[in-house]
Amino acid sequence: MLKVYNTASKSLEEFKPLNQKKIGIYVCGVTVYDFCHIGHGRSAVAFDLIYRYFKYKGYDVTFVKNFTDVDDKIINKANKENVSCEEISNRYIEEYYKDMEKLNIEKPTYEPKATKHINEIIELVKKLIEKGYAYEVDGDVYFSVEKFKNYGKLSHKNIDELKSGARVEVNENKKSPLDFALWKKSKEGEPWWESPWGKGRPGWHIECSAMSMKYLGESFDIHGGGEDLIFPHHENEIAQSEAATEKPFAKYWIHNGFVRINKEKMSKSLGNFFTLRDVLKKYNGETLRYFLLLTHYRSPIDFSFEGLDAAKEALNRFYNFVQRLEETEFFKDGERDENIDKYLDSMIERFELAMDDDFNAPKAVGEVFATIRMFNQYLDSVEKKDKKPFKGYREKFLEDVNKISDVLGVFDASSANWFIPEDIDVEWVKKKIEERTVARKNKDYETADKIRDELAKYGVVLEDSRNYTRWKVKR
RNA sequence: GGCGGCAUAGCCAAGCUGGCUAAGGCACGGGUCUGCAAAACCCUGAUCCCCGGUUCGAGUCCGGGUGCCGCCUCCA
After folding, report:
1. Residues A248, A127 share a domain
2. Which nucleotides of B are covered by protein (CB under 7 A)?
3. End of a domain among A259, A278, A297?
4. ipTM of predicted assembly, 2 dp
5. What is the CATH number of the domain that holds A153?
6. For A121-166, how does the pLDDT look when each residue is reduced to its tens digit (9 = 90+)?
7. Cβ atoms within 10 Å, residue A34
């Protein structure tokens, strides 16, 4: 039974889809005006994990993640560089895809842009005005928060408290400080579209309502995003959408926690961020993804390079084991062992149990490593007793790890991608190792050590075992 | 000021609808292997921020502290 934490109810709920096996997920994506930082990466990984797990569970998932491509920040940047907003947004969408590919993020079903849905947005705003939920003042259109009786139900805020706590309102057009813009009159130098209220552009929240409804229908299963979006963005989305359709909007609200630097939220405005680009120069995408997966998606992650190093070492351990499986000879009539039987049989089950519990990836990962330890112990003992390892164990492990890998997006079933970089001449390395083996047989250790040192310059690490020399390029 | 979250070994991190040995990873230390070395593998460690309560039994529930963080403004 899959349980998900619903921000709206502040509790774990059993996941019950709206329409059997067909589910819809909408996640707020990024505003494309700059490179993505680790926080964006975290959110992407979290929802990618969720998307993949639903598919694993047999759901037919329509996954929508938008690009906000019209916004003050984009306009500012465009004006600063003296180029169009479109050029800015297209540029950073391109960069976004490069980062996402390295993080092994699967492409959502749809990735709509706000600027391509102006008609839908205008229709929605018109409907809200007709229904009396919105009003126009001098080319701007605002949503009247007090008209929507359930306002605050997601973020658990109370309208009166919000009112008393509201900051000094700069916008004189609004009837109430809580009201928010659905449509904004365009100023000089800003992009605009024709509308019943004159030349203008959409407000921030309305695009997500318009696009989610277009691709997923008026009511859908899951809506997600970073926890900073709960208020006001998602609260406003609910108000707009439910006011317009008079139907429940999203059923489950899922929010990921922040990435922090020294206990503080990583954010553009604080300036304490690392871009994905920067980190990916030093660490590969799998390491970063694994690092992000190691903390439950709702908890804060303290970003650190020490943490990335630990993540890298953990993956080394995983791939060392895979390599061991690759290089060990297994036999159909090999030695069986009760303990390893138990662990291998239950690995997938334990994985699912963990994931069913609100996508507990850190726990799921732990189950894999626990199995690896048992398997290593088994192989050690079999070797020591000069017996043969059982072939079925390797097959079972690899088969199940493959399934797990499809969900987690880390843990390849082959060690080569991890240990052997593309730019290394494998044949040359093998030749050198052979030369060294000959030297060692002749007890010419001087030559052997020289070859070892030479290979070490290229990062090649040798592991001498009883019968052969194994090698890798350690990350 | 209002609302909410977190505090587990040297570090990271699961567990928290109470009860099996408090997962897993990193680091340290010990060992196996080895020509040496490295690598690899195995082993080893915490009674869960403090105080009080509920209970046969609490890291897990309740109350009170302390500390840290987030939202209330653009933000994944």
Report:
1. yes
2. 1-6, 11-16, 23-27, 33-43, 68-76
3. A278
4. 0.96
5. 3.40.50.620
6. 999 999 999 999 999 999 999 999 999 999 999 999 988 888 776 6
7. 19
